[in-house]
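Dear support,

Our group has been running a series of protein-ligand predictions, and this particular one with 1,3-dihydroxyacetonephosphate is the one our PI (initials K.S.) wants archived with full inputs and outputs. We had some confusion internally about which version of the output was final, so please treat the block below as the authoritative record. The input we submitted was:
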Amino acid sequence: MRKPFVAGNWKMNKTGEEARLLVAELLPELQSITAVERAVCPPFPYLVSLSNMLAGTGIGLGAQNMHWEASGAFTGEVAPKMVAEFCQYVILGHSERRAYFFETDETVNKKVKAALAVGLTPILCVGETLAENEAGRTAEVVTRQTRLGLEGLTPEQAARVVIAYEPVWAIGTGRAATSEQAQAVHAGVVRPVLRELFGEPVAQAIRIQYGGSVNAKNAAELFSMPDIDGALVGGASLKAPDFIAIVKAAAARG
Ligand code: 13P
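Confirmed final output from the archive:
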């Protein structure tokens, strides 16, 4: 059985004070829900103070990006070891990074390898745009992103990766994929690629989160699907009651 994993991608939101307040609100409710792996991924400047708040709580911390090089003249970038000093997770290849910051499957792959090398759990994001979806290219795009993102990994390394299927048309639109649509991609596209690359046991062990307009209302239905192993939550992770409800829905999965 794969342990459900719910992570909040705060994107570029919240002041430092608001960030600490949100974590303070989450802690009492989320600490006891150990059946679900749960994490928050705030902006870089808040990682240090939030790692102190989260120490020993069982709630993980993730960054939203990082560079693949260990150190050097890369102004404005953050190295894998810097992230690993405070975090357990790192979101890589988010569609916003691909679209606005020109990340490619090749650079995402370098980041996945660099994250694993320092002991971070990469959350590798894949997903098709609306145009690609309407052109019937979902399987092709998601297959390519998954395959190239994980290229060169051993099965042991791959087993430590989390995949987030985030159809771009569902992100921030209030128009989530239906549970059937997401399940079809998870079970029919992503997991078969994992099986082909790394074998059946590893393919079955890797968690595939769904992301894109997940909220307190639709989470339970999404989590009722056998291959939807949790969620990468954007907007709804900024409000404590909503994120708590989503984690509870994952805990009730059965
Ligand atoms: P929303 O939940 O706001 O649609 O964002 C999803 C997302 O991009 C998470 O990484």
